Amino acid sequence: MDERKLGNSAQIQRVQDVVIEDKRCVLVQNGALELLFNKDNALDIVWARYKGVNISFLSKNGLNDGARDFTGNFEGGFLYTCGMDNVSSCVENKPVHGSLHYKKVDTLYALKKGDVICVCGEVRECALFGKNLLMTRCYEVSKDTLTIHDTLQNLDYKDVDYVLLYHINYGYPFLDEGLRIDIPAIKSEPLTEIAKKREAEKFTITAPIDGGDEDVYYHTLSKGCVRLENPNVGVAVEMTYDTNDFPVTLQWKSMISGDYALGIEPSLTRFDDFKMRTLKAKEQKAYQIKIKFQ
Fold it and tell me: From CA 75, how far away is CA 275, in angstroms rounded?
């Protein structure tokens, strides 16, 4: 960055508070990358845009107050973090995909470190006589890379179980016919009978289909690197993460008209072999996912 060419760095780098549909958000722009973080929903990411191209999926529900059931609440967004008490419908009497997304963020701050903008906050999941889990989220945003740093801390004096799944969602126009999906899977398993029938086309993006069903697959990867590329819009996205932390990568593919979406979801567990992890008293664990836009 040549500061001599700038009257104000906000021309190419900015962080500002915004309110959308009564949701408190933080808008970050760094060069060609623009991200909207939601303070009222665990600092999850509402949208991602790169070089003016929308990358993310926003469902027909849009931003909402969370007062309905899951299918009436689910916004999608670029990042919808699932956990820490549930993913999918694995745990009875817990919200589908967990309570975390519905938590407000505390102690929010943003700062610039040279060409990188950091947005950080804390999300707590706790209860009287129950667990006391703290997630510290720190996002690093450069002109072409988003790095998610999440650290879980068990602040209690007894062990606690938790689970996480990072529901990262792609939508039109980045998601379109011709999108190339490179998932280095050494093993793939369909979640449903319908997905099993369409397994040969799991990496194929078609035109929208009126009606129909979603497909979900479990992938075991040879390395934690998933690449999506749309040559028609000139944008590629590469996600990297540690498969020791995330042994399962779920792929959610919905070619349904009006619900046209692709989810790549690093997860700590499968749904059909559901296993929570344990943090010992006062223990902490860090997770990282890097997403590069090209």
Answer: 26
Farthest CA pair distance, the chain: 60
Angstrom distance (rounded) from CA 124 to CA 156: 12
- Under 8 Å CB-to-CB from 212, ≥6 apart: which residues? 255, 256
Asked, for residue 4, whether it belongs to a domain, the answer is no
Secondary element (H or E) of residue 89: none
Residue 272 token pair: 């059909």
| Domain count of the fold of the chain | 1
| Residue 231 falls inside a structural domain | yes
pLDDT digits (tens, 9 = 90+) for 234-283: 999 999 999 999 999 999 999 999 999 999 999 999 999 999 999 999 99
Q: pLDDT tens across 95-150, in order?
A: 999 999 999 999 999 999 989 999 999 999 999 999 999 999 999 999 999 999 99
The CATH code of the domain that includes 184 is 2.70.98.10
Contacts of 167 (CB under 8 A, 6+ apart): 79, 80, 81, 82, 97, 252, 263, 265
